Amino acid sequence: MNRVFFGSVATMTGCIIGAGILAIPYVVMKAGFWTGIAVILVIGIVALIIHLLEGEIGLRSKKCGQLVTYADQYLGKKGKYLMFVAMMIGVYGSLVAYTLGVAQSLTSIFGGWFMLWAVIFYGMMAILVFGNLKVLEESELCMEIVKLVVFVLILAALFNSHHFTSARFTGFDVTNVFIPYGVLLFACLGTAAVPEVRQELKRCARLTKKVIIWGSVIPVIVYLLFTIAVVGVSGELTSEVATISIAQLVGGAGFILLHVFAILAMASSFVALAYALKDVFKTDFKMTNIKAWVITMLVPAIILLLGVESFVKTLDITGTFAGGLVGIIIILIHSYSKKFGDRKPEYVINIPHWGYAILISMFVAGMIYELMRFIS
């Protein structure tokens, strides 16, 4: 039971803690430190609620599947294809961002051609994604253990650095709340991982709620600690990929550790998200493993070859639109599953209609803000 529990938590945290963590200190500094911290907490709570709603949806259905499956079951074909489009945008945007981030880290460590490192990383991840659920669980658990050890060492080094000072923890402006919104929504939402957790816990469904809570809370704690440590050391010098500016200040072993953490964080999320999309193609569109794998891996590769370069912008747009749309659809599915579910769930989340309205309004407001910023 313990191995199943920890393996499932690792799958969820591995999916959530990815490229987003590296961009959080940068957007927090842009918004004002305390503004950013407040938004981390709020988005963290919202993400936990969405994950719990999604977990209940899965437990109310006899058939295990991805969100596309449940959208089809409860919202019909239109809901299915809308969820599919949202999921594709989210996963493809994520895979592009992860590849950009890892390539930057590898270039900082070894030098050489940025695009070559992107191709090498992408090829290695493609091999892992070709595997089955067992490969996913084992790879996630191994990467999460190593990532945890490296993260603890990094925090110890940063908090004990002579560069660290609490004097950099300043700034609160309520008008800046949407500056870190997209990146934080991207960083906190792990909706693609919840169905994987449901499959891993087929014989231990009673653990689902506990796994989702731990799998949602751990990333928020990690983000808070990492943001405090990074901002305390680099302040206004914080770069888009936080580990790059920090590594330059710390140097030595810290330089390597920071980049190793960045690579592991993005690699673990890459595998989990790509596998989730591949599973949608196989389960909901009845494709063979090879065909599903090719379609999953081909589109991000084309986007990368077209010359996309902005790490934070990719996260911001992906989080705001894909994350917001997926969140809204999950809320709608949850309301219908309470009436039309074909299985008694192991737990129930009761949210009043006004609660649904507040969540949907937040997602819509974020998309409107991002759209207006893009137009202007």
Task: Write up what this structure looks like.
- The chain is 79% helix and 0% strand.
- The protein contains 14 helices and no strands.
- It is globular, with a radius of gyration of 20 Å.
- It starts with a helix and ends with a helix.
- The mean pLDDT is 90.
Write a brief caption for the model.
This protein is mainly alpha-helical. It has helices at 2-16, 19-31, 33-59, 67-110, 114-129, 133-159, 181-188, 194-200, 208-234, 242-250, 252-284, 289-305, 311-340, 353-375. The protein has one domain (2-375): Up-down Bundle (Amino acid/polyamine transporter I).
Quickly count the domains: 1
Q: The biggest beta sheet, please?
A: none
The outline comes out as: globular
Terminal CA distance: 53 Å
The CATH architecture: Up-down Bundle
Mean pLDDT across all amino acids: 90
Strand-pairing-aware structural class = mainly alpha
Count the DSSP helices. 14
CATH topology: Amino acid/polyamine transporter I
The CATH class turns out to be Mainly Alpha
Q: In total, how many beta strands?
A: 0
CATH superfamily: Amino acid/polyamine transporter I
The radius of gyration is 20 Å
Oligomeric state:
single chain
Helix content: over 70%
In percent, how much strand structure appears in the residues? under 5%
Elements, N to C (H/E): HHHHHHHHHHHHHH
